From TrEMBL:
Species: Vitis vinifera (Grape)
Top-level lineage group: Eukaryota
The protein's name: Uncharacterized protein
Length: 115
C-alpha cells in the first residue's frame, strides 16, 4: 500500500480522489467549495479578532481614571527602562517630587525639580 499523508486525506488530493474512485469534476468542485469556505472562515476569524480587541479595549479603558493636571501641581515621575540596576527589583520605581512648569495641549508636561 502506498503511503498517504494526513494532509492529503483532509484536503482531498487528486491522488486520493482517484483511489476513492471520485471523478475529476467532483474533485475540482469539492476543492472549489473548500476554497470558498476558506474565505468565509477568514472573514469570521477577522470579525472574532476585532470583537476580542474591542472587548479588551473596553476592559482596559474601564479601569483608566483621567486626571487633570495643572501648573504648579506636585507629581512623581515613573522610572522605566531597560537599564540594569544592581538593586534589581528593590530599585525605586518613582522619582521626584517634581513641579509641573507647563502643560501642552496633547497632555505632556514640563517638569522642574523643587530645588
Amino acid at each position: 500500500m502506498e503511503a498517504v499523508l494526513p494532509v492529503e486525506i483532509e484536503m482531498g488530493s487528486l491522488r486520493v480522489a482517484f483511489e476513492q474512485q471520485i471523478s475529476e469534476t467532483e474533485w475540482a468542485q469539492s476543492c472549489y467549495d473548500q476554497l470558498s469556505l476558506l474565505d468565509e472562515r477568514r472573514l469570521r476569524a477577522a470579525d472574532h479578532v476585532q470583537a476580542y480587541q474591542r472587548k479588551m479595549t473596553h476592559a482596559f479603558r474601564k479601569r483608566v481614571k483621567l486626571k487633570k493636571f495643572q501648573k504648579s501641581d506636585l507629581v512623581l515621575k515613573v522610572l522605566r527602562g531597560l537599564i540594569s540596576d544592581p538593586k534589581g527589583k528593590f530599585r525605586p520605581t518613582w522619582s521626584g517630587p517634581y513641579v509641573i512648569r507647563d502643560l501642552t495641549r496633547e497632555g505632556a508636561a514640563w517638569l522642574i525639580d523643587l530645588d
